[in-house]
């Protein structure tokens, strides 16, 4: 899109109609608007983002995690706490806002790192092929056969000065392989197209061909993959936090809230502790997946219903 | 005589076939096997053959996008099969390619301006304004409206796209253009249009073409010298007159007899001739092809005319040739 704007600003001849490339942003919008489920999902995502990110602007993060024993285990709506309080007297709504924001941010962070690394590795591997491809893919295979969860748990407990950032890196170490494989497949299908040969005969360097020629042709795949992995990565963070190896205890997250359900007493008697977070996680994961599927249809003409 | 621009010597492009438990190389696909040809400055050299005969591979090897197994391609006294030599010479500034499928050869995500300007940006140092003027000039040459530079490839028809491909190929004032079946994806009227543009540009800038095609009618219209390829090897080389009037190899005869002709009166005769040639081709396989199904090495039969004849056949054919002259 930025490329388009740049070209448009260069345009001196105003009468020339500026056209858009095939399968553009418009197709994506149409595909989402036409699919009622995807539209609902999209609205839910926006609402959740507004709730968590907007809400966190009005909250003081140190206040949210302040312990106030007197208020512990207040039920629904007691003492002005809409969703009650937890064992430390902290307001669940506030925790939900901060926790949701943290979980989503970590999901985004992990996705950013994974997509970036995976994209570059996939492009290089798919474009060059041959031995380079074979070596990179064996490394990917190796990382993929490692037992992910146990290693992550060990790393979380071993690393000094553990913070949310370390968690992002720990999850990303294992996350990039799928993305690399995914992009490699698309680059493989692109690299023997004539336009790549034409660029070679035009004297463009390999790097230029990879990033300026091939990459724009797989951007729709990139968008789809980003959206779908965000949901997955939020899930991974929540899982780790749920079993107690995720974010540090001082940082609230959806996983720690759901973690209250570890105690049978909480499950039966204090549903306000874990139910809101569970519903929110479910809503956001499902919504992202539905939107992702609509994007997938937009990107892949064969699946599109016209 | 015109000066030669490029010389292909014993070009071989083989692809390994891997099989067995260890995935070792067990055999090769000989896509191009021992091909030698010489293209002169400003001429159109036709390269003809059926699908899979290796003509496109030869073209791609000459442009330098296909790794060569062995053999040499001599340009300006340098062997350009080595990538380092190509880079030193700015080889692709002088040797460009027109692709068969105009849709896939233009990046669907780029504007026409960026597509045509790509070789200019890589090989020449022009300012943005100069570059735009040059692109406009090129579009003018191939008869495209000037607002085309803001459009994307999918907004054009097949013939227009192919003309954009031609414009990109001539952007750097090359001396040789490998045209890989440039018109076989176009309908007949548009074919003529694109071919005429190519001829026009050739006369204007003295460009040599290696015109790869399976359409003998088109090649007759375009080229002075031609080579016929079959199963990776050259079957017959010669001038247009040699090939069209005195075809000697059975495969050439078969190709020529297959040209469709609008001649209702002699329809039966043509059909009979075609069937005769086909029968000869079927029956004399063993005479014209060795036991691997490849043709024999080329032998000179007259001035420029080389044919892949079996050894014992040479003397007989030479006599025939003399008798005819």
UniProtKB/TrEMBL annotation, chain A:
Pfam families for this protein: BPD_transp_1
Keyword terms of this UniProt record: Cell membrane, Membrane, Transmembrane, Transmembrane helix, Transport
Endoplasmic reticulum listed as a keyword: no
GO CC entries: plasma membrane
Cellular compartments annotated: Cell membrane
Database matches in CDD domains: TM_PBP2
Record membrane topology: Multi-pass membrane protein
Signal sequence annotation: none
ABC transmembrane type-1 domain segment(s): 100-292
Stretches that traverse the bilayer: 37-59, 104-127, 214-236, 272-292
Gene Ontology BP terms: transmembrane transport
Family the UniProt entry places it in: Belongs to the binding-protein-dependent transport system permease family.
Protein name per Swiss-Prot or TrEMBL: ABC transporter permease
Organism of origin: Lactobacillus bombicola
Record lineage: Bacteria, Bacillati, Bacillota, Bacilli, Lactobacillales
From TrEMBL, chain B:
Keyword Zinc applies: no
CDD domains xrefs: ABC_NikE_OppD_transporters
Span of domain ABC transporter: 6-256
GO BP term, pick one: protein transport
Record's keyword terms, sorted: ATP-binding, Nucleotide-binding, Peptide transport, Protein transport, Transport
InterPro entries membership: AAA+_ATPase, ABC_transp_ATP-bind, ABC_transporter-like_ATP-bd, ABC_transporter-like_CS, Oligopep_ABC_C, P-loop_NTPase
Entry's Gene Ontology molecular function annotations: ATP binding; ATP hydrolysis activity
UniProt cross-references to Pfam families, sorted A to Z: ABC_tran, oligo_HPY
Family: Belongs to the ABC transporter superfamily.
Protein name listed in UniProt: ABC transporter ATP-binding protein
Organism: Lactobacillus bombicola
Organism classification: Bacteria, Bacillati, Bacillota, Bacilli, Lactobacillales
């Amino acid at each position: 899109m930025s490329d388009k704007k740049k070209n448009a600003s260069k345009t001196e001849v105003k009468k020339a109609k500026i056209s858009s490339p095939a399968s553009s942003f418009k197709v994506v919008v149409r595909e989402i608007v036409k699919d009622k489920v995807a539209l609902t999902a999209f609205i839910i995502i926006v609402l959740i983002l507004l709730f968590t990110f907007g809400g966190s602007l009005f909250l003081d993060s140190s206040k949210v995690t302040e312990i106030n024993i007197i208020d512990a285990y207040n039920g629904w709506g007691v003492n002005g706490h809409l969703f009650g309080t937890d064992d430390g007297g902290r307001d669940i709504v506030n925790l939900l806002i901060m926790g949701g924001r943290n979980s989503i941010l970590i999901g985004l962070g992990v996705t950013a790192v994974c997509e970036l690394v995976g994209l570059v590795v996939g492009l290089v591997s798919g474009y060059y092929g041959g031995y380079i491809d074979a070596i990179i893919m064996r490394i990917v295979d190796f990382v993929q056969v490692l037992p992910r969860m146990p290693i992550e748990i060990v790393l979380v407990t071993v690393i000094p000065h553990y913070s949310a950032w370390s968690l992002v890196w720990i999850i990303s170490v294992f996350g990039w392989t799928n993305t690399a494989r995914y992009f490699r497949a698309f680059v493989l299908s692109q690299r023997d197209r004539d336009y790549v040969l034409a660029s070679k005969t035009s004297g463009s360097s390999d790097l230029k061909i990879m990033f300026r020629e091939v990459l724009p042709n797989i951007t729709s795949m990139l968008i789809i993959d980003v959206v779908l992995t965000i949901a997955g990565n939020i899930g991974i963070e929540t899982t780790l936090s749920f079993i107690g190896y995720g974010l540090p205890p001082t940082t609230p997250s959806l996983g720690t809230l759901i973690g209250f359900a570890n105690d049978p007493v909480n499950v039966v008697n204090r549903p306000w502790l874990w139910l809101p977070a569970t519903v929110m996680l479910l809503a956001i994961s499902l919504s992202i997946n539905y939107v992702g599927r609509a994007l997938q249809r937009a990107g892949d003409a064969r699946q599109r219903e016209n | 005589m015109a000066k030669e621009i490029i010389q292909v010597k014993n070009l071989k492009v083989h692809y390994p076939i891997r099989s067995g438990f260890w995935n070792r190389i067990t055999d090769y696909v000989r896509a191009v096997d021992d091909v030698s040809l010489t293209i002169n400055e400003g001429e159109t050299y036709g390269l003809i053959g059926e699908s899979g005969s290796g003509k496109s591979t030869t073209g791609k090897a000459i442009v330098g996008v296909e790794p060569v197994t062995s053999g040499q391609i001599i340009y300006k006294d340098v062997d350009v099969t080595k990538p380092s030599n190509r880079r030193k010479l700015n080889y692709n500034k002088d040797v460009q390619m027109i692709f068969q499928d105009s849709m896939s050869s233009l990046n669907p995500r780029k504007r026409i301006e960026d597509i045509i300007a790509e070789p200019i940006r890589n090989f020449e140092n022009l300012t943005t304004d100069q570059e735009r003027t040059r692109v406009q000039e090129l579009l003018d040459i191939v008869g495209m409206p000037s607002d085309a530079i803001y459009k994307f490839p999918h907004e054009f028809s097949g013939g227009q796209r192919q003309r954009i491909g031609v414009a990109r190929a001539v952007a750097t004032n090359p001396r040789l253009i490998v045209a890989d079946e440039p018109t076989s994806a176009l309908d007949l009227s548009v074919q003529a249009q694109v071919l005429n543009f190519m001829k026009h540009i050739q006369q204007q800038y003295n460009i040599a073409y290696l015109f790869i095609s399976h359409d003998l009618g088109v090649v007759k219209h375009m080229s002075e010298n031609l080579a016929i390829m079959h199963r990776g090897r050259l079957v017959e080389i010669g001038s247009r007159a040699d090939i069209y009037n005195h075809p000697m190899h059975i495969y050439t005869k078969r190709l020529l007899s297959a040209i469709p002709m609008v001649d209702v009166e002699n329809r039966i005769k043509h059909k009979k001739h075609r069937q005769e040639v086909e029968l000869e081709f079927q029956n004399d396989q063993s005479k014209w092809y060795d036991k691997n199904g490849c043709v024999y090495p080329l032998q000179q039969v007259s001035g420029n005319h080389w044919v892949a004849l079996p050894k014992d056949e040479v003397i007989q054919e030479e006599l025939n040739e003399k008798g005819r002259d």
